[in-house]
Specification:
alpha/beta, FAD/NAD(P)-binding domain, five-stranded parallel beta sheet
């Protein structure tokens, strides 16, 4: 076991080599053809399907399931991808249990919905594994669009704009495109390099150039982009992370959960990634759960997820909470951190129990910790941005900002709910509005 120089309890190589492969294998193994037919046969093919209404990208779910049932999965994939070009990723990470599957008539009647997410993955994987791109570009319009951010919203917009005949340049601060899909989602949800494979497949449409290592503010200005391009779409997500504003919050061993997940996602050898013996994750969203579960899967002995409200108020879905519990993560609720204790490096996190209205009870508890992961929200970074509301870019309609010729979508803009599927929808809709504006 390799000891970390920063905290005595943080070390790499806590598991046998085979343990990493097993722990980070596919969370939901793909359906085989027979399983897909059986799952599709359960669909009622509702005429007034509530699952469509519940899907942020408005996929015609009964149609694509019928296409699977009739033995035409590639046609099903095109039905999905025409509405959601990142349907493969969304099938893996979308909280279907809170969206389409929760609305499924089978769920209401039997408590067992049609496996919509897994059927979507079956169809899109069937097509993409062939290397087939079902869309082609329209005639070139001569118009150019800059997209800032190569995450779900930016790539969705870029693809739709390119398909409509525009030339698109995508700028991204990271070394790889993909955004949240590449850097911010648990590795066991998208194993075997799926995020990059999907980006490569998406780019087959043509007309899209990606320039990595370029961030708004440091390398690009909004005024410069406006002068160079006919339209601009901002989709850079939220690059900043809220700090832990308590005594000792800057001690060694206190890290950002998003950085922890990004390092894990980019690691060639998980056994070389240091993890604590006693890990505390502060937060209640998907990032917090992903960080907590992956800490456990890396070999941490004790992992505690601490959240300031009740489990019913956590942004992470019930499925994700149950997944964390099933992996041995302890979930503490109604607690807020008040201090981080330790001599240089973290040793304990002190919490106060709070009421539903966040008022303190005066009751304290200390949790042992040699590694603390902050997942308490992210913030927008950038200079010369359009008007903000609540710390995000203010938009109306299909992503129009207060600056003419500039649109925005995804996590950096108001109106979203921090889901990949919502970001894809916002990128698509903004692209259609940009196209209408450019073509008069």
């Amino acid at each position: 076991m390799t000891q970390s120089p920063f905290s005595p309890g943080v070390a790499a190589g806590r598991l046998a080599a085979s343990g990493y492969a097993e722990n980070f294998s596919d969370l939901h193994p793909a359906l085989d053809p027979h399983e897909a037919l059986v799952a599709a046969d359960r669909c009622y093919f509702c005429h007034d399907a509530p699952c469509i209404t519940a899907c942020p990208t408005d996929i015609d779910i009964p149609l694509f399931i019928r296409q699977i049932a009739t033995g035409t999965p590639d046609a099903a994939a095109k039905t999905i991808l025409s509405q959601n070009i990142m349907g493969g990723m969304c099938a893996r990470v979308c909280p279907t249990e809170q969206l389409c599957e929760e609305a499924c008539v089978r769920e209401a009647a039997e408590g067992k919905p049609v496996l919509i997410g897994q059927l979507q993955r079956y169809a899109t994987d069937h097509l993409q594994e062939k290397g087939i791109h079902p869309f082609s570009r329209a005639a070139v319009t001569g118009k150019t669009v800059a997209v800032v951010g190569a995450g779900p919203a930016g790539l969705s917009a870029a693809h739709r704009l390119a398909m409509l005949g525009h030339e698109v340049t995508v700028y991204d601060a990271r070394p790889k495109p993909g955004g949240l899909n590449e850097y911010g989602i648990a590795a066991y949800k998208t194993p075997e390099g799926f995020a990059q494979a999907e980006v490569d497949w998406l780019l087959q449409i043509g007309g899209i150039t990606i320039e990595n290592g370029k961030a708004l503010g440091a390398d690009l200005s909004l005024d410069g982009l406006k002068a160079e391009f006919d339209a601009v779409f901002l989709a850079m997500g939220l690059g900043g992370v809220n700090g832990l504003a308590v005594e000792g919050g800057d001690k060694d061993g206190v890290l950002d959960a998003v950085d922890f997940i990004a390092d894990l996602r980019q690691a060639d050898d998980l056994s070389a990634l240091p993890v604590g013996r006693d890990v505390v994750v502060i937060g209640g969203g998907m990032t917090a759960v992903d960080a907590a579960v992956q800490s456990k899967l890396l070999g941490a002995l004790n992992v505690t997820l601490a959240y300031r409200r009740g489990r019913d108020r956590m942004n992470a879905s019930t499925f994700e909470q149950d997944l964390a519990a099933s992996k041995g993560v302890r979930i503490m609720t109604h607690v807020v951190p008040v201090a981080v204790h330790g001599n240089g490096s973290v040793r304990e996190v002190e919490f106060e129990y709070v009421n539903d209205d966040m008022s303190g009870t005066g009751q304290m508890v200390r949790v042992p910790a040699d590694q603390v992961l902050r997942a308490i929200g992210q913030t927008l970074e950038g200079e010369g941005l359009p008007d903000l509301t609540g710390g995000k870019i203010a938009v109306t309609g299909a992503g129009r900002t207060t600056v003419d010729g500039v649109w925005a979508g995804g996590d950096c803009a108001t109106g979203g709910d921090d889901l990949t599927v919502t970001a894809v929808a916002e990128g698509r809709d903004a692209a259609m509005d940009i196209h209408a504006s450019l073509m008069g």
